[in-house]
# Entry
Amino acid sequence: MSNHPRLELVCPAGTPAGLRAAIDAGADAVYCGFRDETNARNFPGLNFSRAELEECVAYAHARETKVLVAINTFPHAGNAGPWHRAVDDSASLGADAVILADIGLLSYTAERHPRLRRHLSVQAAAANADAIGFYVREFDVRRVVLPRVLSVQEIAAINAEVECETEAFVFGGLCVMAEGRCSLSSYVTGKSPNLNGVCSPPSHVVYRKEGDELLSLLGDFTIHRLGAGVAEPYPTVCKGCFDAGDFHGHVFESPASLDASALIPQLAAAGVAALKVEGRQRSRAYVSSAVRSLRCAIDNYAAGLPIAARALSRLSEGQASTQGAYRKTWR
Amino acid sequence: MPDRTAKASTAGNRAALTLGPLLFNWPVEKWKDFYARVADEAPVDVVCLGEVVCSKRLAFYVDVIYEAAERLRAAGKTVVLSTLALITLPRERKECAELVRSAEFDIELNDLTALSYLEKTRPFRVGPFVNVYNEGTLQFLARRGAVSVCFPPELSLGAVEALSRAAASMGIEAEVWSFGRIPLAIAGRCYHARVEGLTKDSCQFVCARDSDGLDVKTLDGNPFLAINGVQTLSHTYCNLAADLDRLREAGVASFRLSPHSGDMAAVAQAFRDRLDGRIAKDEAWAKISGASGATAFSNGFLFGKSGVEMVR
# Structure
């Protein structure tokens, strides 16, 4: 048996059925949100009512799994009520932690619910040890979800300095921009991740055929234009195909998703406490499969065994995957 | 004598104009000429200096910042030093700490990292890159010493009004992004380098070729965005010149103009004249159009629509 640290596997739960699937597949913790604009996956058909959360907390706790509630959008001016109620209800329903991004809401939670554990959402984009230190000092944040702009070396340096746990994304959709600091979606659609919990929403997506080509548009802008028979990726602004000067192609990032499962040893050595899987909007089958593979990888690593590479590759969007900013050359 | 009091820049009810920090990588001579002209000709009350986008650029003009700051101050402007918007590297932390500890000028925070370095008694300004969306956040910043806040550009008029009223009650001056390409995102990756087949670490400062950012067009040739190193901006220039009356009524105290390579002194003059009621909306619009060289304007965020829209 090796002495490798055991990483906590934090998994997405878009629905009660998804939550049970993630737990049954081996999640150590699941994260979810209420069915409104208070969380960053405010999609139709997703998320939890109060009663559902209560049942799911019981299901999770009976299986020694934690439930983290994401309240990680920014309360609206003049209408903080829904966000305050989301925090109050998380506390009363027995959530193990809330995941927050807004300093006003952190302040409210620290004051009203000092014993409710606070995690800092990736939407706060705390990208260095001093920023993290600020949240720890001011709001007693116990864990910070690291923004996807950092290399593994930078994460190691941060962990050497901070007095809280860190959580890093290991698998799923990849934001190219610093999270919580992006208004590309609202520039095109009027709906933003920060205020509405959506990015490039389906309500503003149009697919159109032009000759032999299929176009996908977001609002008035063509994001992809592909030949017939090619799988059309979803038109997220930062994954689109554009012209910039003489460059023609994916100016920001190709429609690849993150797969850092091969970096589990490096992330563990960097002092990361937990690994996060993105994808509350994904199907139950997808989540089950991803969680099972990562559970196996983490357990193998903890036991000193090799990690099966590319076990997750068939789950990746468009079959392409990237290790993102964890490798410095990505920049 | 260090000026430790970040004073409200508006005397009485007069709306102020703030020239935001230059977001683009201009050659140092152009940089110097620009701020010399601002000192001599631009009717702005506050001028923000410093590197907000990419710390690699700072070395090119760090030596001339204080000279420009002194000249602007001698011309009666309130000078503000702005911090980087996304701080990751140890060098960037050190530079940010040094910047906010230098007591000579007001400080504008664009990343909450800076609050770690700021003395608890020191007043500060908050730039548009800090997420201030609600009264709770304003309250926290007010207690910590904020004297002015430039709201995120995606806020609607209703939100601006609610926050401006709250800000006033907390002694904070409310500011709104009013002119210039809208900063929409910031990243770890440098897109200017990427489109040249380079990486951020080997960028060769290719961003210096584009005074107002590099246009990003859709595959139909439709102008869409502009890249500026690690930053992504709108292709359209935000222009709230026709909306100043309602913003004043909403309690906005200051209007931010973001520097571009057009005639910024003339743009500022048009905003000043419109605020003072010397010219009508249409005239202000025509002057700004001519002086800025911009081909498309937008104000959609203010009306709760997509930011790219222009509501007239």
